[in-house]
Specification:
- With 376 residues, the protein is of the alpha/beta class.
- The chain has one domain: Aldolase class I (TIM Barrel).
- Helix content is 41%, strand content 12%.
- The protein has 15 helices and nine strands.
- The strands form three sheets. A three-stranded parallel β-sheet has the order 8-1-9, covered by helices on one side. The chain has a three-stranded parallel β-sheet with strand order 2-3-4, with helices on one face.
- α2 crosses α10, α3 packs across α11 and α4 runs parallel beside α5.
- The longest helix is centred in the middle third of the chain and has 18 residues.
- The chain is globular, with a radius of gyration of 20 Å.
- It binds iron/sulfur cluster.
- The site of iron/sulfur cluster has 12 residues, from loops.
Length: 376
C-alpha cells in the first residue's frame, strides 16, 4: 500500500482493510479527493479480493431494433424522430438476418436496446424475441432497459410485472442496466425529463430479480451531476441489492451482477457545449464505485465508451470486466466515440494480458467458458 497523500482518506483506508461498509460521507470524501493513487489502490485491493487478477469478457453482438424515439434526452445522440430520414425500425426478420450475418463464432449473447416508439407495442418485442430464440436457442438474450420496459408497459396498457412476464416467456433472459442515468429527481428532470423516474427503474429491476433473473446497473457521469448525486445514486443501487440481490454461483439467483459506469459523450447532443468527464474523473469514478458497491460482484470498464487504453488502466482501479467483442455498436459512435465498432477475441485477450490481468471468457451470467475452441 502506498503512503496516503490525502490524510482525509486514512479512515476510509482503515474501513477498507477491515472490510467495513463505506458511508455517504466516505463517498463524498473520495469524490472530493485528488489522491487518485490512494483511491485506485484501495479499489484495486477490493477488486483483487473479489475477483483476483481475472478480467472478464464475453463474445457478443449488439443490435438496436429501432432508433426512433419519442424522448429528447439531452445527452443522447442516438434517438431519431419518426419523421427523420435516418430513423429505422427493424422487423423481426431483419433482426434475425442481422444476427445471422454478424454473430461471431463462439458468441453466447445478443444485446438489444433501442429507442422508445409509441407505435411499437408488446407484440412487436415478443415477435422478435421469439424469432431470435427460434433461430438461436443457445444464445442468451440480454435486452430492453427498464426505461424501455416501462414505456412498452404504458403503451400496451399492461402492468410492469405482466410486461416482464410476457417478454420473459418470449425469450428475454436478462436485462441490461441502461436508463439509470442519475436518479436524483432534479438532475433527471434537467437531462431526461420524460423518461421513467427512479421508482419505475427500480420497480422493473425488482420484478426481474424476484423472478430469479439477473440484470446490470449503470450511472451516467460528466453532465450536470455533482458528487452528492453520484453517491446518492450508488447507495440507492446498493440498498436495492441488499434487499433483492440473491446471486448464487452457476448463474442461479437474481440481482445486479455488474455495475457499468458510463461516461457522457457530448458530440451531436443537446449538451455538446459540455466537456464530458475527464480521464482522471472516469478513473476515480470507477474506483469509488468499486469501493461503495460492496455487494455487486463486478465492475465493468466498457472499452467502447472509455477507449481501449483507459479500459486497460481501469483494470487496476477497481474494474474486473471489459465487456465483449460487441461487433456493431451504434449508441456511443453516434455520440462521437472513436473506438472500433468491435474487437476480436485475440485482440481482447491481448489488451487484457498487456495490462497484467488474466483474460477470462464468460457467458452472460459470469460462468467461465473455455477459450481454446474460440478462434481469434
Ligand atoms: S437516451 Fe434512449 S430514451 Fe433518451 S432520447 Fe436517446 S434513445 Fe430515446
Amino acid at each position: 500500500m502506498l503512503a496516503i497523500a490525502d490524510k482525509r482518506l486514512e479512515p476510509i483506508a482503515e474501513k477498507v482493510a477491515a472490510q467495513e461498509r463505506l458511508s455517504f460521507d466516505d463517498g463524498l470524501a473520495l469524490y472530493g479527493s485528488s489522491d487518485l493513487a490512494t483511491i485506485g489502490s484501495l479499489a484495486n485491493r477490493v477488486r483483487e479480493r473479489i475477483n483476483g487478477d481475472k478480467t472478464y469478457y464475453n463474445i457478443n453482438l449488439h443490435i438496436n431494433p429501432t432508433n426512433t424515439c419519442f424522448m429528447s434526452c439531452k445527452f443522447c445522440a442516438f434517438g431519431r424522430k419518426a419523421f427523420d430520414d435516418a430513423s429505422y425500425i427493424l422487423t423481426p426478420e431483419e433482426i434475425v438476418d442481422r444476427a445471422r450475418k454478424n454473430l461471431p463464432e463462439g458468441a453466447s449473447e445478443i444485446h438489444l436496446v433501442g429507442g422508445l416508439d409509441p407505435r411499437l407495442k408488446i407484440e412487436y418485442y415478443c415477435a422478435w424475441l421469439r424469432a431470435l430464440k427460434a433461430a438461436f436457442p443457445h444464445i442468451h438474450i440480454k435486452t430492453l432497459t427498464p426505461v424501455e420496459v416501462v414505456f412498452i408497459a404504458k403503451m400496451s396498457k399492461m402492468t410492469i410485472g405482466d410486461t416482464i412476464g410476457a417478454l420473459h416467456e418470449a425469450g428475454m433472459d436478462s436485462m441490461p442496466g441502461g436508463g439509470a442515468e442519475i436518479f436524483d429527481p432534479e438532475i433527471r428532470e434537467r437531462i431526461c425529463e420524460h423518461k421513467c423516474d427512479a421508482a419505475g427503474w427500480f420497480e422493473t429491476h425488482r420484478e426481474i430479480h424476484r423472478r430469479g433473473m439477473r440484470t446490470n446497473c449503470t450511472m451516467l457521469i460528466g453532465h450536470l451531476e455533482e458528487p452528492r448525486h453520484r453517491v446518492d445514486h450508488l447507495l440507492r443501487l446498493r440498498a436495492h441489492q441488499d434487499e433483492w440481490g440473491n446471486l448464487k454461483p452457476g448463474g442461479e439467483g437474481g440481482g445486479f451482477q455488474c455495475f457499468i459506469p458510463l461516461s457522457f459523450h457530448p458530440k451531436n447532443t443537446a449538451f455538446a457545449h459540455l466537456p464530458g468527464p475527464s480521464g482522471f474523473d472516469e478513473l476515480r469514478n470507477i474506483a469509488v464505485s468499486r469501493l461503495l458497491l460492496d455487494n455487486i460482484p463486478h465492475i465493468k470498464a466498457y472499452w467502447i465508451m472509455l477507449g481501449i487504453k483507459q479500459a486497460q488502466i481501469a483494470q487496476h482501479f477497481g474494474a474486473d470486466d471489459i465487456d465483449g467483442t460487441v461487433t456493431h455498436e451504434e449508441i456511443y459512435h453516434d455520440a462521437g466515440a472513436t473506438t472500433p465498432q468491435g474487437m476480436t477475441v485475440a485482440e481482447i485477450e491481448r489488451i487484457v494480458r498487456d495490462c497484467g490481468r488474466t483474460p477470462v471468457l464468460r457467458d452472460s451470467v459470469y460462468n467461465e467458458l473455455k477459450t481454446n475452441e474460440v478462434p481469434g
